[in-house]
């Protein structure tokens, strides 16, 4: 049964002027699965909770909960979350929910995690858990952003690259700035051209890979179409496939 819990901001990270992460203390929040989301909100003057869904970035075993967000122009909640400081209070709904979790993804040799923007959140949580590393021989994070500073959690990504060099591959994509280590363009086109496959050294093949998509709905729509040309299809419980997804608006 869904219920609200009291949370308190214990840390925040401003990746730039429009991308931020908030970390909450909420001891009453129950265990969740890496990749799931919940509602985060603020009490209004009428004593109602204004809330929106956010993926949990932290590991299920972490001491604190964490989200990543942008202050949407003319948004009713996200600009207010952007103003929160350490010690401020929030409301957090339990239980967490969502099916972008590894127990819903079939076994394969390679797991592709493909995200744009704040869609990287559930994948950071998945990579923070042990299941991804024990279940797949290769794990590839494809992370698209507009600017270099929009590539959040680079410290964690670098740690995985250092600790798991034979297993983990990272493909950053920056569309509006130059980055010598990143590809430039849209994810669907970079898959179609083979640029992403060349960068990570792994092909998209239905016999060897599973793909998880999260982020911009247009990216997801177009990527689904491109991946279908490689023989990959959307995964459903009643019809097993290769692509699991979550749209972010």
Care to describe what's here?
There is one protein chain. This protein is an alpha/beta fold and 249 residues long. It folds into two domains: 3-94, Translation factors (Elongation Factor Tu (Ef-tu), domain 3, Beta Barrel), CATH 2.40.30.10; 102-247, Rossmann fold. It is 21% helix and 31% strand. The protein has helices spanning 78-82, 121-128, 131-135, 154-163, 187-192, 195-200, 217-228, and strands spanning 3-14, 20-25, 37-43, 49-55, 65-69, 89-94, 110-116, 138-145, 168-174, 209-215, 243-247. The protein has a six-stranded antiparallel β-sheet. The longest helix has 12 residues, at 217-228. The two termini are 25 Å apart.
Brief sketch in words of this structure:
The protein has seven helices and eleven strands. The protein has 249 residues and is an alpha/beta fold.
List the helices and strands and how they pair.
Elements: E1 3-14, E2 20-25, E3 37-43, E4 49-55, E5 65-69, H1 78-82, E6 89-94, E7 110-116, H2 121-128, H3 131-135, E8 138-145, H4 154-163, E9 168-174, H5 187-192, H6 195-200, E10 209-215, H7 217-228, E11 243-247
Q: CATH superfamily of the largest domain, called what?
A: Nucleotide-binding domain of ferredoxin-NADP reductase (FNR) module
Number of helices: 7
Number of domain modules: 2
N-to-C SSE string, H for helix and E for strand: EEEEEHEEHHEHEHHEHE
Structural class by sheet pairing and helices:
alpha/beta
The CATH architecture of the largest domain: 3-Layer(aba) Sandwich
- Return the average pLDDT rounded to an integer: 96
Note the main sheet: 6 strands, antiparallel
Unreliable stretches: none
Percent of residues in beta strands: 25-35%
Shape: globular
Just give the CATH class of the largest domain. Alpha Beta
Rg over CA atoms, rounded to whole Å, is: 18 Å
- Give the strand line-up of the largest sheet: 4-3-6-1-2-5
Number of distinct beta strands: 11
**CATH fold label of the largest domain:** Rossmann fold
DSSP helix fraction = 10-25%
Cα end-to-end separation: 25 Å
